[in-house]
């Protein structure tokens, strides 16, 4: 059974995203493509923040979307960790509270330490640098227990040292049985990058 199996058609205005995206086993998928080809849209469709005009989405044994049977599981019930490009840190909460989801997911503190921001756990978001904010967001996303993680350019604002550290933490998450799809800003920095083309696509990863 595939970790993720999506077949969809989504249209808004003159833009159309249509194709198949299938991942057979837990792995880290680096996703790239031209600006405007639909990378972020694809992640939003999987997460449930956009609704396809037609299609079907299954995660493991769970059917999340199907136009034929009119199934459309709401985003909060899909058990998918999703991080957009937006800075969505709560402005009046400390990093410790944010990354641990107010202690609901205490593993976030462990991840913050691995990401090198342990000295900033008691700070508020406005007291952080851009890189520290990005790492806080990543720790918060990875702290969730979900086996599917969608990351939209999470490392774009990091310097080389922090980038490599954060990437190693993300790679280690696959060893926990997670499937991670990560949009990357500079594809030349990564191995085995999957290119999302303009127009219909068929992507299948074993």
What's the N-to-C terminus distance? Answer: 11 Å
Taken in chain order, the helices and strands follow as EEEHEEEEHHHEHEEE
The structure class reads: alpha/beta
Oligomer: single chain
Radius of gyration (CA) equals: 17 Å
Sketch the major β-sheet.
Answer: 6 strands, mixed
Give the number of helices: 5
Strand content bin: 25-35%
Mean of pLDDT: 96
Number of strands: 11
Name the shape in a single word: globular
Low-pLDDT residue spans = none
Largest sheet: spatial strand order: 6-5-4-1-2-11
What share of residues is helical?
10-25%
Topology:
Elements: E1 4-12, E2 15-23, E3 28-32, H1 39-47, E4 54-59, E5 62-66, E6 71-72, E7 80-83, H2 95-99, H3 107-114, H4 130-142, E8 148-152, H5 160-174, E9 179-183, E10 194-195, E11 201-205
Parallel strand pairs: 2-11, 3-9, 3-10, 7-8, 8-9
Antiparallel strand pairs: 1-2, 1-4, 4-5, 5-6
Offer a quick outline of the entry:
This protein is α/β, with parallel strands linked by helices and 206 residues long. It has helices at residues 39-47, 95-99, 107-114, 130-142, 160-174; strands at residues 4-12, 15-23, 28-32, 54-59, 62-66, 71-72, 80-83, 148-152, 179-183, 194-195, 201-205.
